[in-house]
Amino acid sequence: MHELANPKEMREWSRAERARGRRIGFVPTMGFLHEEHLQLVDRATQRADRVVMSIFVNPLQFGPREDLATYPRDLDRDRTLAAERGVACLFVPDTAAMYPAEPLVRVSPGPLGDTLEGAARPGHFAGVLTVVAKLFHIVEPDVAVFGRKDFQQAMLVRRLAADLDFGLEIDVAPTVRELDGLALSSRNTYLKGDDRRAALALSRALRAVEQAWRGGEADPTALTRRGMEVLQAPGVVPEYLALVDEQLRPVARVDAHTVVAVAARVGTTRLIDNVVLGEGIAADTAVRA
Fold first, then answer.
1. Residue-wise pLDDT tens digits, 131-156
2. Fewest beta carbons within 10 Å, which of 50, 127, 150, 219?
3. What HEC string does the chain produce?
4. Which of 2, 37, 137, 257 is catalytic?
């Protein structure tokens, strides 16, 4: 496995591979890899000849009171997992390489970034889209794979690629869950004892909405109320439970394409999750973490 830290060398590597007729797949991450990241690699491998994974904890997407300094990191372990999964090139730039000067120009997410996570974390998506745009320019992939757990992020990246003519495919993979339903996340490492058990309220709330919808309820107000009843569990502080379409707009009537998005704090940890009702949580991938 190649490992590069210099953006110029990364671009040269990709261009050399493409000159040989090889299709480049890309999985951008912030490291502290878990099975969902590795399944994104598997998915990219199916769609490309060479897979690049980036590991970069992007300071632009963290707010002043968020966990940038304590975000979990383990590069040695990440190297081993990436190599074992068949990553051809690991791109591990530092902050100085990605932002050699103060980035005065940012990518605005527009109105799609003003709701849900955008409302809860002002400036977050401008930071995400700015680093994703830079990574797309550096890696020059043919396809990039993102996880659906970060649903709003994935939809915004799709719009970024389309609106700014990046000319690459954005593939969105199903959420990967632990056997008890908790969506995999690097931040799950913060969950200890009672917090780990309390965190299951998010997936239970999604299941409750899904079951009520499958039972014939299509009124978003009634379904939101049902989900919030489950989400308001001991140790959980709900932030939102929203029923939206793929453009993140509230729906007047719920159907199979409706996305249920949820966010809550469990102890000191902020978690998000979602489900597409027509697919259901059962369609997500369950693994033993």
1. 999 999 999 999 999 999 999 999 99
2. 219
3. CEEECCHHHHHHHHHHHHHCCCCEEEEEECCCCCHHHHHHHHHHHHHCCEEEEEECCCHHHCCCCCCCCCCCCCHHHHHHHHHHCCCCEEECCCHHHHCCCCCCCCCCCHHHHCCCHHHHCCCHHHHHHHHHHHHHHHHCCCEEEEEHHHHHHHHHHHHHHHHCCCCCEEEEECCEEECCCCECCHHHHHCCCHHHHHCHHHHHHHHHHHHHHHCCCCCHHHHHHHHHHHHCCCCEEEEEEEEECCCCCECCCCCCCCEEEEEEEECCEEEEEEEECCCCHHHCEEECC
4. 37
